[in-house]
Design goal:
Chain lengths: 583, 583
C-alpha cells in the first residue's frame, strides 16, 4: 500500500480534495489554458511539427503527470528548449513535413518516456546533478538565442534551415531576396506588441485601477490578442494571397491514438537525443517544481518526478504529441493563479481538448509570423548573459564551463554544446581536486593550534615535516601527494619524520591507499618516519581494512599536538638537541 | 641556460660522468643486451611485425631517451602491453605482413611521439592521474591474459586471429585440426624451461655457490639458452620442413631510415589509439621510473619524461621501429645490474646495433614457438588477479572499476576496456562525492566540541539544526544538500535556525553557491535563519566574491561554539524558553 502510494501520489492529495481546492484549481486552469493555446501552436512550429501536435502534447501528458507526479503546481507540456532539441534530433532522420517526421517525434517521446521511467524506477535521479548550474544556465541562454534566430525566418518570410547559429544566419542571408514585406510588418508589429504587453501592460492596468488578478489575466491573454488581431487582418485583407504564410487547416479532433515507429534504425538514431532531451527536460522541470514546492514548505520526490515525466512522455507518444516536460512559464502562471493540486492540470487538459475540437478552424488564417513573435518574446527571457559576468567574478573554472557551453551550443549545435559542457565541468572539477592545497604547518606559540608556516608566526621543528592535506585523497591527486612528499624530502635532508594531518581528508580510495603505501615504503627506505594525525573515524575504519596501518613506518596520533609533543620529547638521533625555531 | 638544462637533462649528469660510472653502466648494458635480444624479437612478433622491428625499436629510442629523459635507470623499448595495443590498433587499418602494416606502425609511433612531446611541453603530465591504480592494475592483468592467449596459436602451430578473448579462443578452437605436434612439443618444452629458469634456477645457482651477480646474469640468459637450443634442434633435425614455423631471413643491417605514412585517413584512424598507447605507456613508464628514482633519493620530472618518451617514439618512427615506452622488467634489470646514468642505455643500444648487424643470420631457424614461450612466461608475471580480492576488501567502488576494466578488456578489447575503466572510476568518484556524509551535531557536555548526535551523548537545541558537511560542495552534491535541508526543515517544524558547519568544506563552486543562495532564499521564505560556522579562509575569500554573505539570512560565526552560545542566549520567539536537551 505504501509502495502503491509512492507510485501514485494522486492517492495522497485526492483523499482531502474539497470545494475550495476545486474552485482554486478551476481558476488557475482557465488562466493557463488561455496562455497555452497560442504557445502550444508556436512550440509545435518550433519543433517543425504541424500546429495541432503542440495542443495534443498538452492534453494526455498533463493528465498522466497529474496522476504520477509529485509537484502540486508543475504544468507539463511542450517547452521551448525541448522543442528545439526535438527539431534538431528529428531533422537528422526525416524531412520536415513528411509523415516520417511526425512518427519520429512520437518515437522520440516514447524513448524519452521509457528512459525517464527507467531512471525513476532505478532511482537514478541524482545523475541529473552532473549538469552543473553554469552549464545549464549557459545551455539555456544559448538555446534561447538559437530559438529566437530560428524564428527570424518566419518574421522575414524567407526560407532557411540549419541547427547552428552560423548555418541559420548564413542560410537566411542568402535567401534575403525572398523577403515578404507584409509578413515582416505583421511579425515586427506582433513582436513589438508582445514585448509591450510583457513589460508595460501590467503596470498600466494597475495604474488604471485593475485588480492584480485581472491585470494578470489580461497580460497573459496578450498573445491571444495578437493572434486574433493578426488573424483578422490576414482574413480581412486577403493577405494569404500576398504570400503571407498562414497556419492553414488544422484537424478538428480530440488527440488521435498514434503509434511511434519502432524500426531499429530509427531507435538507434534517436536514442542518444532522447536521453539528452530527458535529462535536460528533467533538470528544468525539477528546478521549477522544487522552487514552487519550497514556497509552500512542500516537498517533491525527484525519483517519482522521473516517473511522472516519463508517463507524460509515453502519453505524448501515443496521442500525436512530441517530447514534453514541466515548463517554467506555465508552471509559475499556474502557481501564481492559485492552483492547489494537480487537478488544475487535468482541468487545463479539458480546456485544451475543447479548444482542439472547437477552436482550430479559427486559426486557419493565423500568420506563422505571429507564432514566431510569440516564441521570440518568450525565449528572449531565457537569454541571460549575465551568467558569464557572475561566474567570471566567482571562479574561472565555472566561467570556462559556461563560455564553452554557450560557444559550442551556438556553433556546433545543442547536443555537442551540452555534452561538452558536462565533460568540461567534470574535467575542471577533477583538475581542481587533482592539485589539492597542502599546507606545511607549525605550532602557534602558547596554543595547541597549528597553522600554515607561510601565513603565521609559528614554531617548527627542522626534523619534522608536518603537512595538512586540504582534500580527500583519490586517484586524481594520489600521485600529486607522492611527488610533493618526495620533493620535500629530497630538498630537506634534515627531515627525519613526515606527519600528514588528515583533518580535511573525507575519503581515501584504493589508488590513494596505494600511494600512501608507496610513500611509506619510500620514506622507510630512506630511514624517515611516516605518521598520520587527526584521521576521521570513517577514514580510519576504511584504512584498517588494509595492511597500511600495520605496515606504517610510524604512528597514528589522535591530534597534531600529540605528535608535536612526541617529537619534541624525543631527542633527534646522532645530533645535539636543538630548540624548535619560531619563524 | 636553465631552460636548456630543463629540456636536456644530459647536461646535468654528463658533467660529472667518470670512470666508475662508465664501468657500472657498461656491466648493466651487457646484461640488459643479452636479455633484450630474444625479448625484442618476441615483442615484434606480438605486435604482428617482422622480428627486426623489435630490435630497431630498441636502438634509436634508447639513445634519444638517454638525451631527453630524467630517469637514471629507465630502459626504453618495445614492451608487452604496448605491443598488444599496437597489434590491436594497426590490425584495424592493414593486413598483417603487408607493407602498409609496417608503415602504419611507424605512423602510430610518430603520432604517439608528437602527442607525448606536446603533453610534455604543455605540462599536461597530470592527465595520466585519471587512470586510477585499480584501473591500471585491472588493465595490465587483462592485457597479460590476452597476450598469453594470443601466443597460444604459435605454441599449437595453428592459425588464429582476433583481439578479444572469445574471438581468439573461438578462432583457435575452430582451427585445432591444423595442430602441429612438433611445434607443440617445442613450445611446451620451452615454456616449461623458461618457467623453471625464472623460479628455480637462481636459488639453485646460489646453493651451488655462484655469486649473486653471476646467478643473475645466468638467469637473465635463460631465454637466450632456449633460443639457441630450439634453433639448433630445428636446424639439426630439419624441422622446418615438418611445418614448424621459423623466424626466417632477417635483414642484416643497422636500423634503416624510414618514413611514417601521413595520409589523412591513416592519421584519422590511428589518432585515438596513439593517444591511448601514449597515456598507457607513459603511466607504466613513470611508475617504474618513480619507484627506481625513490630508492636513490632521486627525482624524476613527469613532464620532462613525456618529452623523453616522445623523442624515443619519434626516433622509433624514423628508424623502422614501432611504439615504445619504459619497460618494467628491463628497467629493473638495468637498475639491479648497477646502471648509474642514461649512458647505460646508450651502451645497450650499441650492443643491440651489433646484434642487428652480426647476429641476425643466426636466428633464421629460430622457431616462433620459442618466442611465444618467452612472451607467455614474461607476461604471466603481469597477471595479478589478487587486485580483485584486495579492492573488494577495501572499497566496492574500486572493486567495480577493476572488475569492469578486466571484463571489458578481455571481451571487448583493450581500447574499450581501458576507456570504460577510466569512465567508471570517474563516475563512481563523482557518485560518492555526490552524496556526502552530513552529520547533525550537538555539544559534548563540558567541552567546546560538537559530535554526531547519533553516536554521542550530546546537548541539542530543538530550535537549532546544526549540520556538519563532510565534503567540498560542488555541482554533483549541491542539489543533494538542498534536498536534505528542505527535508529536515519540513520534518522539524520547531526549527528556527539552520547552521552549516564548513570545517571539512575545502571548496564551493558556482553551482554550490547557487544552491546555498536557494537554501538561504527558501529558509528566508519560511522565516528560518541560515548561518555558517568554521568557514576556511580560502572558502570565505571565494564566497565574498559573491553577494551570498551580504544576503545571508543569518550570520557567519567563527566557531560552532560561538553559534551555540549565541542561540542559547537568545530566547526563542513566541514561546517559553526551554533548556537544551541531552540525548
Amino acid at each position: 500500500m505504501t509502495s502503491l502510494r509512492r507510485y501514485l501520489p494522486l492517492l495522497d492529495w485526492g483523499r482531502t480534495y474539497n470545494r475550495t481546492a476545486f474552485s482554486n484549481d478551476m481558476i488557475a486552469a482557465v488562466i493557463v489554458t488561455i496562455m497555452l493555446i497560442p504557445q502550444s501552436l508556436a512550440y509545435a512550429l518550433l519543433a517543425g511539427l504541424p500546429p495541432e501536435a503542440g495542443i495534443y502534447a498538452s492534453i494526455a501528458p498533463i493528465i498522466l503527470y497529474a496522476v504520477f507526479g509529485t509537484s502540486r503546481a508543475l504544468a507539463v507540456g511542450p517547452v521551448a528548449v525541448v522543442s528545439l532539441l526535438t527539431a534538431s534530433a528529428i531533422g537528422q532522420v526525416a524531412e520536415q513535413g513528411t509523415a516520417g517526421y511526425a512518427v519520429a517525434a512520437l518515437t522520440l517521446a516514447f524513448l524519452s518516456g521509457v528512459f525517464l521511467v527507467l531512471m525513476g524506477v532505478l532511482r537514478l535521479g541524482f545523475l541529473a546533478n552532473f549538469l552543473s548550474h553554469p552549464v545549464i544556465a549557459g545551455f539555456i541562454t544559448a538555446s534561447g538565442i538559437l530559438i529566437a534566430t530560428s524564428q527570424l525566418k518566419h518574421i522575414l518570410g524567407v526560407s532557411a534551415h540549419g541547427h547552428t547559429l552560423p548555418e541559420m544566419l548564413g542560410s537566411m542571408l542568402s535567401n534575403l531576396a525572398e523577403i515578404n514585406w507584409i509578413t515582416l510588418v505583421i511579425g515586427v508589429l506582433a513582436t513589438a506588441f508582445l514585448f509591450w504587453v510583457r513589460k508595460g501592460l501590467k503596470p498600466l492596468l494597475r495604474r488604471m485601477g485593475a485588480s492584480p488578478l485581472v491585470a494578470d489575466i489580461l497580460t497573459k491573454a496578450g498573445p491571444v490578442a495578437a493572434v486574433v488581431a493578426t488573424t483578422l487582418a490576414v482574413w480581412g485583407f486577403g493577405l494569404a494571397e500576398q504570400g503571407v504564410k498562414i497556419v492553414g487547416a488544422v484537424p478538428q479532433s480530440l488527440p488521435p491514438l498514434t503509434l511511434p515507429g519502432f524500426s531499429p534504425d530509427l531507435i538507434g538514431a534517436l536514442l542518444m537525443p532522447a536521453i539528452l532531451i530527458s535529462v535536460i527536460g528533467f533538470v528544468e522541470s525539477v528546478s521549477v517544481a522544487q522552487t514552487l514546492a519550497a514556497k509552500k514548505r512542500q516537498r517533491i520526490d525527484p525519483d517519482q518526478e522521473l516517473i511522472g515525466l516519463g508517463a507524460a512522455n509515453l502519453g505524448a507518444a501515443f496521442t500525436g504529441g512530441y517530447p514534453v516536460t514541466g515548463g517554467f512559464a506555465r508552471s509559475v502562471v499556474n502557481f501564481d493563479a492559485g492552483a492547489e493540486t494537480p487537478a488544475a492540470g487535468a482541468f487545463t487538459a479539458v480546456g485544451l481538448a475543447i479548444a482542439a475540437v472547437a477552436l482550430t478552424p479559427l486559426v486557419y488564417f493565423l500568420p506563422t509570423a505571429t507564432l514566431a513573435a510569440t516564441i521570440i518574446v518568450a525565449v528572449l527571457s531565457l537569454v541571460d548573459l549575465s551568467i558569464l559576468k557572475k561566474t567570471w567574478g566567482y571562479s574561472r573554472a565555472d566561467f570556462t564551463a559556461v563560455a564553452v557551453t554557450i560557444l559550442l551550443t551556438l556553433t556546433m549545435g545543442v547536443e555537442v554544446g551540452v555534452a561538452s559542457g558536462v565533460a568540461i565541468s567534470v574535467l575542471l572539477h577533477l583538475y581542481k581536486t587533482s592539485r589539492p592545497h597542502v599546507a606545511e604547518v607549525g605550532l602557534v606559540p602558547g596554543t595547541q593550534h597549528f597553522r600554515n608556516i607561510h601565513r603565521h608566526q609559528v614554531a617548527t621543528n627542522p626534523r619534522l615535516l608536518s603537512l595538512r592535506v586540504d582534500e580527500s585523497l583519490y586517484f586524481a591527486n594520489a600521485r600529486f601527494l607522492e611527488d610533493l612528499i618526495q620533493a620535500r624530502v629530497v630538498e630537506g635532508s634534515d627531515i627525519r619524520d613526515v606527519v600528514l594531518i588528515f583533518s580535511a581528508v573525507n575519503a581515501v580510495d584504493y589508488s590513494a591507499l596505494e600511494s600512501l603505501e608507496a610513500i611509506n615504503q619510500r620514506l622507510g627506505d630512506l630511514g624517515v618516519g611516516f605518521h598520520l594525525t587527526e584521521v576521521k573515524g570513517p577514514v580510519m575504519d576504511r584504512l584498517k581494512r588494509s595492511h597500511f596501518v600495520d605496515d606504517l613506518n610510524g604512528r597514528v596520533f589522535l591530534s597534531q599536538y600529540d605528535a608535536w609533543l612526541h617529537f619534541l620529547a624525543r631527542p633527534p638521533e646522532g645530533s645535539a638537541e636543538e630548540p624548535p625555531l619560531v619563524r
